[in-house]
Amino acid sequence: MKFKATSxxxxxxxxxxxxxxxxxxxxxxxxxxxxxxxxGCGSGVLSYFLSESFHKIIAVEIDSKAAECxxxxxxxxxxxxxxxxxxxxxxxxQKADLIVCEMMDTALIDEEEVQVLNHARKALKNGGExxxxxxxxxxxxxxxxxxxxxxxxxxKYEILSNTVNYSKIDFKDEINPDFEKDIEFKANKTGNAxxxxxxxxxxxxxxxxxxxxxxxxxxxxxxxxxxxVKCNDLINVKLKYxxxxxxxxxxxxxx
Length: 255
Ligand SMILES: C[S@@+](CC[C@H](N)C(=O)[O-])C[C@H]1O[C@@H](n2cnc3c(N)ncnc32)[C@H](O)[C@@H]1O
Known about the structure:
This protein is an alpha/beta fold. It has helices at residues 7-14, 16-27, 45-50, 64-73, 113-120, and strands at 33-39, 54-61, 80-84, 96-101, 124-131, 134-144, 150-151, 157-159, 164-170, 178-186, 191-205, 208-210, 220-229, 234-242, 251-254. The strands form three sheets. Strands 6, 7, 8, 9, 11, 12 and 13 form a seven-stranded antiparallel beta sheet that branches. It has a five-stranded parallel beta sheet with strand order 3-2-1-4-5, sandwiched between helices. Strands 10-14-15 form a three-stranded antiparallel beta sheet, with no helix packed on it. Strand 11 (191-205) and strand 12 form a beta hairpin. The radius of gyration is 20 Å and the shape is elongated. It starts with 6 loop residues before the first helix and ends with a strand. The model has no long low-confidence stretch (mean pLDDT 96). The structure holds S-adenosylmethionine. S-adenosylmethionine binds at residues 9, 12, 40-43, 45-46, 60-63, 66, 86-88, 102-103, 112, 116. S-adenosylmethionine (SAM) is lined by residues 9, 12, 40-43, 45-46, 60-63, 66, 86-88, 102-103, 112, 116.
């Protein structure tokens, strides 16, 4: 099947690791299911995967061009309805067996996954599932070339510490978007630390975990005040951000 897509959604479609991870996770639902919501459906690719095993799929997309592509792509599927709307304006009357919401980005800082799930979670049946199910965030102390916050594509950096698992977020729980944590790193080499690297690992369902891919949660490099470290030094960094409010909300402080 050939999909119409905006250039951004086309890049998402070309990311095979991302698409096949969601395909596998959705395929676990093969069988006779009632209703699924696909929130932020983009080109409609995940609704296409859902269409085999759900009687009804409601796909919501805020971007009018993407919603138009999704409607065209899925118009032969009588069980899929595409709605061009902000999910936050939707009043979900029916409870779903499954909510799929791929508004993911590193540590959920830049996209609206948290706000959307906090709004839509009440529309999940008892025993219903959310894909993805959870995320786990990791941080490392680094020396990085650039002195501003950026994703790690084509970026040069050297890792100077252990990897710290600093938070886990379960999508079935109400999520507080205000994040603040003191993270303790143990240096494992001598160097000049001037940043931290954040990596998000996504738990799609009980059987599947997905690391970063080119279009799915690429690691984020965040500056900190420079500090010289040597092996076994303990460095504490306070990390703050507001999930869903953008990378401008990120701040760090060496404690
Ligand atoms: C990362 S893309 C995923 C697209 C598609 N689900 C896929 O997997 O290819 C996230 C999509 O969510 C949409 N989106 C973001 N915030 C939204 C909101 N509040 N309501 C509806 N759609 C939203 C974006 O326009 C974008 O198309």
